[in-house]
Write a structure and sequence with these properties.
Structural class: alpha/beta
Low-confidence stretches: none
CATH superfamily: Metal-dependent hydrolases
Shape: globular
CATH class: Alpha Beta
Number of helices: 15
Number of domains: 1
Helix content: 40-55%
Largest sheet: 6 strands, parallel
Mean pLDDT: 96
Order of helices and strands: EHHHHEHEEHEEEHEHHHEHHEHEHH
Strand content: 5-15%
Strand order of the largest sheet: 4-5-8-9-10-11
CATH architecture: Alpha-Beta Barrel
CATH topology: TIM Barrel
Length: 332
Amino acid sequence: MTGPTVDVHAHVLLPEVEALVAGLPALAEAKALDARRGGPAALAVNGPMIRERIPRLTDVSVRLAAMDAQGVDIQLVSPSPSHYHYWADEETAEKVYRLANEATAAHCAQAPNRLRGLGLVPLQHPEQAVRALAHALDQGLEGVEISSHAPGRELSDPAYAPLWALAETTGALLFLHPFGCTLDERLDQWYLSNVVGQPTENAVALSHLIFSGVLDRHPGLRLIAAHGGGYLPTHIGRSDYAWSARADAGAGCAHLPSSYLKRIWFDSLVHDPHVLRELIRAVGADRVVLGSDFPFDMGTEDPVGALRAARLSDPDFHAVRGGNAAALLRKD
């Protein structure tokens, strides 16, 4: 086996960020909304699950030991999506992104040969998001993690054009990782807010970027979609058909929607070897990268084993295992 094994979907918990926003009335409102959307049973499970994983989320030595056990050489570490805080006003949002970027960079700096980092941007304030990306890059981070939308704004919103432009010109990575789902109480049982909500949000967000023409206007964006891009890659035929059959569906982008999948990278975290093979068929083996959602319970403890279960050819296996991500991270 040659080349490093690279996991692009791993998280860090930043207590400093939560201490910063603690006690703010808007935080209580946001938590109440999340609780209502997720349901009480999910809250009861989430608390102990997070507490058990805090050492892996915060202690670099524990993280590295877990990576060794998984056979992972390099992690691309992004803040827990619970740190997005898209409810925050401009002053609070600036404090959040600065602290998150600096704390993530400090975490990764403890093992610079094995940890690379992503920061945060306040999508609720598009004009601030540009400064936040620049700040993340100044900290030595590879780019930023974003959710599927912000309150009242989809990723197709023209207000984000300066953010996409800066990401394109700098080569910054954008990691699309939803947090929460606006289907609300329809998903408040059986953890459907995550089980169904996350792949739905991925599909909606990617569809906005494709159908609106964002990827036409910014063809150099380096975008990684978590959770295999959700439902979109394996159901892209419906998007193509609509683009061809309806004037409204085809009005915003220049090419078949499926063609844009080959401009995006997708992590391998789909929990089914047959779905992983179909993802690779749809987007190409050169566009899939290893992802584990380390160390959360909806991730995989054995990302390489999950990849091996798909029974790929040797070249495809090694490309997904690390070759594609190493190239994204500009590592030989």
